[in-house]
Amino acid sequence: MERSSSITKKNDGDDADRNLSEQLVGNEEKEESVEKIFESREVSPWQKQLTFRAFIVSFVLAVLFTFIVMKLNLTTGIIPSLNVSAGLLGFFFVKTWTKFLEKSGLLKQPFTRQENTVIQTCVVAASGIAFSGGFGSYLFGMSEVVAKQSTETNAASNIKNPSLAWMIGFLFVVSFLGLFSVLPLRKIMIIDFKLTYPSGTATAHLINSFHTPQGAKLAKKQVRALGKFFSFSFLWGFFQWFFTAGEDCGFVNFPTFGLKAYENKFYFDFSATYVGVGMICPYIINISLLVGAILSWGIMWPLIEQRKGDWYSAEYSSSSLHGLNGYKVFIAIAMILGDGIYNFFKVLGRTLFGMYHQLRNRNVLPVGSQSSPSPPALSYDDQRRTQLFLKDRIPIWLAIVGYVTVAIVSAATLPHIFAPLKWYYIVVIYIFAPTLAFCNAYGCGLTDWSLASTYGKLAIFVIGAWAGSGHGGVLAGLAACGVMMNIVSTASDLTQDFKTGYMTLASPRSMFVSQIIGTAMGCIISPCVFWLFYKAFSDLGVPGSQYSAPYALVYRNMAILGVEGFSALPKHCLTLCYIFFIAAIVINGIRDAVGPKWAKFIPVPMAMAIPFYIGASGLICGDGIWTLPSSVLALAGVKPPICMKFLSRKENARVDTFLGS
């Protein structure tokens, strides 16, 4: 009798879900309320949204995504958004879990969209540390491997080699501050200002759609397709491994367009990861990379190389900043800084302009007439979401106490990790950090653009110049970059997740706890994954290697530039830097002036700058995860059995002669 009752309830639920699905599918056309579709479903208390299964799935996905982000960090430096993938895979894994328990009669709590949001938040927070942790930029830029590539300012006081203990400790004392800095402003950002947060909104719509039968079927098809491409790219990575027994061996060094083109970085390297990133990124980013590669490796570097002995001494090694490498690095830096500064002031201007209008419309500022039109009536969705969003308040005192406590611990701890980073440098950063975190979070809500790396570069120049070259200014600047990047990055991530939670009726408390747990996961997972790369691949960070970590040298040279000034630049390099710095600003200005219709045909300077240093060579999941077994094989001393290498006819004849003799 009990079994019959449960079956009846299940069938009733299926009918209700079918109706919900039909309503949601036609929602955009009819402009019906999303929350009315879900009003028959009870919203669990915030404690029940934080389930054990959610964090188990989050941990597994965090490891998966951290490998992907880490590989991209150490190769191209281009990191696509993984929010949607986290939501999709989180739904699939838990849905599979609950279906199994339901059939066995052990299901105690159904899977809800709130729990789905908790998983997405936790995964993105954890994998985000792989980026903000600087493993492919400022943190690895401190190492001796990168310091040797720039012969300037590489004294012992400016070098700190990676170690698992201090990396984990560093991340734990800097990664939580940003969460507390914007916590009191969540109502202003989400409800009062009604900021869009495009990625958070898109993820919320996706999660809402998953939790109907039609959406679940679509998600199942998407996961099935993902599994096919995962398997293909994993097996393809495994197959390629067999041909990489020696240096410059394998498909990754396939001279697709000939050996001369290969020397100038024009070739297809058969990387499924790059193909996957290219599919995710907008086509204008891919075109910008190609334009930058043609301009630099196809035109500029060959011409500058012909000036060897005139513009720079022929005695300098290929890695010296006084040689050709100096032009590659500093011109790329000039474009990155030009793009970053333009967008910083653009987003800052929009932020201030938007805040002014928001406050004026709410009659907070005494502007114009005191009588203002009453605000428009809230829709049912907004009423429902606002009610639940404000129900589980997070006390302001918690944010203040949390921020001050973490700041004190951080200021006391960091000088022991980085001796040149004095406690008063850290205090100054933490005084300005909440304002910068708010600006970044607000700007991200308007434009979906986080400027965390730009704020980090600002810290490099300010703290590096303050410390000076004789007192470890390079190391101090890079460490300060890490402190600043982690604060502003986690602040924008949290507000983005608050927007997703607002639209899926997930409690702010569950969002905050999930973000805390995800950040803690990331502080352990990311250093461990990086350590695996660091120990498994002896040529990590070496130019031309599989994992060259191009941005590590770029960030270190920014720190050198901040400490030593322009004396580090070779002949005519400063003039070229000025030209490309101004060109980046002008191109961005033109893109904004002509509007979206024509801007899609104009390259993005930031993307153009990437191949200036790393070249033009160009699925994510499988290929990224193959890194794990390949790293384990390398650590175990298992070598690939075959070396596939390509030689010119002349070199091949010499090899044949040598072998014949």
UniProtKB/TrEMBL annotation:
Compositional bias per record (Basic and acidic residues), positions renumbered to this chain: 1-20
Region (Disordered): 1-29
Transmembrane segments: 50-72, 78-97, 118-140, 164-185, 283-304, 394-417, 423-442, 512-534, 573-590, 610-638
Keywords: Membrane, Transmembrane, Transmembrane helix, Transport
One term under GO cellular component: membrane
Membrane topology: Multi-pass membrane protein
Any single Pfam family the record assigns to this protein: OPT
Name of this protein: Metal-nicotianamine transporter YSL7
